[in-house]
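TASK: fixed-backbone design
INPUT:
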């Protein structure tokens, strides 16, 4: 009998197939004592397993490239954490086996993270995955992960670790559904980059029967269990219609009456560039530079290494616009040489531009590298700072750019409500704004973007968030400057129309979403987008905002 479940759709498309569950977690190792003279051997086993797992994560990252590489390298750093390793060796010294010591040490650290506030609690899934991989290697059992199958399937999991999501084979994994996670979690971002339909935060997902048939709609967040023939036909027809519309929509982003809305790509490094070019991106709206800094947590990459990486991205978009975000370290992206280890709430502490202003030599080297990378190229380089709170922050960043001799536009990211509220003041110091809707939602609603339990408040359709977007866009228009959106909100085709109606001047997203947004924008006039935006803002919930905008655009 057909039943319908609803989660959060995070990656467009429809997938219909049999359920396959993620490999089960590693069993808890037995608690047995070892003789004292065996401790050195067990400590050596533990160190070797940790290094092997870290190397495997880095290798997976190198294969995946881009955003996935940054995520996996962060996990490798987690595996090699010196305090964790010291705790493992201490436990072995008093009689634990290597596998039991790893299990118990990670359990203790897990408890600390889980109780340290929602932001750090969101890292628990990544920590569990690292633990499972180390313990599996020590026990000599298969790594937990994606099931072996020769036939395509829909993957079901309580949560997906980045190491698994990064290397999913789209020819076999038709789509995936998770019980945890949110619209801006690592897995959601990687799913969009891959173009695999995905639904997250679906209650009871892990209870779906192995081998049962489900239909996953990554646009609406609906999952149909044992869909009827009629439902399957309707979903397949809708998917075919979408595909035809995508193929027909080509060229620069614009509304049906010719209002231009440049469609740009979010990239994490050179590995993401081919997909962006293939999707017809008109440039890069968010070049995350963190991936370069994750290779070595103890020191920043050399200026020359940065120049080489930046130039590869800049060369891919001759005459195009490339917006680079300088290093955003801190919170869930700690770097040993930059970020303090004892902050009680790092999401609200020294992060982003605050970190760079505390370490001006790191910022200066990055800005000088960008200047050299752009030299002689016809690209339109723009550089922006993350986590700008006020005009003082904006001025400090603009001054640093000028002192480094950077010939580019300087901008500020609007990720903190204060920046949206005082956008005109900030625009006295910089030349453009870029809205990071993921963090802006997080800080507006005090809702961690990695925690599925508060995903309702991370919905970019929340009217309060739309109000802040409108305020920033109106301020930019009044100052004669641009205001783009580079957060994941831009990847929702319907919301892209609303953002356009709010006055946003460009949209940047994962490459896979660009054709969907281009095709949808081309169906409506600017006036229709403006009416849809007004209707969405007049509501009191994300669901009502979405419904109101859809009603306007469909002519209801």
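OUTPUT:
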């Amino acid at each position: 009998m057909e039943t319908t479940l609803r989660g959060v759709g995070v990656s467009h498309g429809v997938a219909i197939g049999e359920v396959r569950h993620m490999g089960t977690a590693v069993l808890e190792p037995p608690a047995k004592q070892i003789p004292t003279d065996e401790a050195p051997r067990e400590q050596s086993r533990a160190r070797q397993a940790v290094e092997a797992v870290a190397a495997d994560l880095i290798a997976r990252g190198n294969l995946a490239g881009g955003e996935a590489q940054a995520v996996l390298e962060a996990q490798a750093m987690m595996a090699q954490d010196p305090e964790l390793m010291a705790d493992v060796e201490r436990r072995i010294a008093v009689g634990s086996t290597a596998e039991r010591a790893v299990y118990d040490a990670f359990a203790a650290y897990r408890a600390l993270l889980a109780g340290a506030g929602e932001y750090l609690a969101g890292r628990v899934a990544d920590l569990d995955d690292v633990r499972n991989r180390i313990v599996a290697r020590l026990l000599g059992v298969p790594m937990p992960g994606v099931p072996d199958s020769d036939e395509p399937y829909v993957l079901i999991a309580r949560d997906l670790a980045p190491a698994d999501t990064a290397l999913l084979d789209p020819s076999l994994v038709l789509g995936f559904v998770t019980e945890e996670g949110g619209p801006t979690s690592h897995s959601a971002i990687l799913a969009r980059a891959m173009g695999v339909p995905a639904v997250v935060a679906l209650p009871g997902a892990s209870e779906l029967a192995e081998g049962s048939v489900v239909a996953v709609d990554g646009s609406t967040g609906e999952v149909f269990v044992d869909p009827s023939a009629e439902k399957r036909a309707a979903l397949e027809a809708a998917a075919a219609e979408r595909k035809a519309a995508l193929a027909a929509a080509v060229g620069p982003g614009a509304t049906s009456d010719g209002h231009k809305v440049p469609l740009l790509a979010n990239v994490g490094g050179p590995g993401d560039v081919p997909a962006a070019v293939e999707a017809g991106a008109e440039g890069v709206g968010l070049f995350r530079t963190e991936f370069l800094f994750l290779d070595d947590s103890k020191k920043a990459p050399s200026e020359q290494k940065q120049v080489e990486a930046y130039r590869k991205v800049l060369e891919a978009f001759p005459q195009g616009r490339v917006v680079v975000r300088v290093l955003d370290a801190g919170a869930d992206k700690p770097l040993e040489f930059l970020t303090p280890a004892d902050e009680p709430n790092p999401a609200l502490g020294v992060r982003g531009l605050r970190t760079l202003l505390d370490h001006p030599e790191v910022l200066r080297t990055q800005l000088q590298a960008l200047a050299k990378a752009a030299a002689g190229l016809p690209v339109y380089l723009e550089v922006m700072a993350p986590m700008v709170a006020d005009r003082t922050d904006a001025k400090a960043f603009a001054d640093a750019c000028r002192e480094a001799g950077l010939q580019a536009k300087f901008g500020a990211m609007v990720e903190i409500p204060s920046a949206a509220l005082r956008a005109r003041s900030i625009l006295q110091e910089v030349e453009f704004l870029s809205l990071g809707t993921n963090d802006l939602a997080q800080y507006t609603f005090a809702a961690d973007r990695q925690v599925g339990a508060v995903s309702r408040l991370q919905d970019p359709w929340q009217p309060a968030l739309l109000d802040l977007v409108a305020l920033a866009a109106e301020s930019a228009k009044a100052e004669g400057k641009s205001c783009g959106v580079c957060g994941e909100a831009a990847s929702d085709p319907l919301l892209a129309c609303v953002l356009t109606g709010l006055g946003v001047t460009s949209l940047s997203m994962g490459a896979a979403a660009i054709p969907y947004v281009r095709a949808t924008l081309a169906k409506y006039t600017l006036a229709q987008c403006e009416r849809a935006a007004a209707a969405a803002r007049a509501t009191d919930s994300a669901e009502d905002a979405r419904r109101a905008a859809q009603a306007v655009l469909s002519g209801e």
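COMMENT: The first strand starts at residue 3 and ends at 6.
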